């Protein structure tokens, strides 16, 4: 067993602890007796955690796009609990709209939160984990980091990038005893559709209205999972000596991803002679 897994109580650092999966996983870790550094942009949204769990929780106001604030929070977390066992990037939101409708400033803001923000956390935390010689870095991506759907192309692109960063990092930090796991949820009944987690493109193009309504109707018919049912899966991963790089949450996504990748392979195979000829 690694040093981290020998410890009965783990120390978690979690971004986006105020709602959705972040709130559920934060409370679950505290309920099982672990210590958690819970962070959110609005400190009042997580103040009740301190009242409920006392010295087991440190609550900090963190906007992940503020690199200095992130670094200060990681430093405080390490000083307060003496170590970091689990660093969990969970903050993020979705931008809804067609590729044509979304404005550059909206796309940049999405990437700041969904990509640069997590990188700020990683760059602040990894030095501590390297020095310890152990640790587990988790990140909430999405099954949509494997394929994309209409109206959320920019969100999916941010998760494609997120997965690439974590994939590369896993190889880089493995020699230091640090594990990496990407969490890939499917559709769940969380607050991800709230105003704080969902933003709509500021430009409206009428030509897409019928198509967008059809897509939204389809989304509304999705079978959504119970987010509370994900807790044991997260615990299984963080308690595992050799955790997986990727973990899907839900029963519908693996068949979909198999279908997507099989289709890609068929196309690559159909064009392989032209591809090979391009080698020169």
UniProtKB/TrEMBL annotation:
PANTHER family: SHORT CHAIN DEHYDROGENASE, SHORT-CHAIN DEHYDROGENASE_REDUCTASE FAMILY PROTEIN
Signal peptide: none
MF terms (GO), sorted A to Z: oxidoreductase activity
Family, similarity comment: Belongs to the short-chain dehydrogenases/reductases (SDR) family.
Transmembrane segments: none
Keyword presence, Oxidoreductase: yes
Keywords on record: Oxidoreductase
Species in which this protein is naturally found: Sphingobacterium siyangense
Protein name according to UniProt: Short-chain dehydrogenase/reductase
InterPro entries membership: NAD(P)-bd_dom_sf, SDR_fam, SDR_oxidoreductase
Pfam families tied to this protein: adh_short
Keyword Oxidoreductase: yes
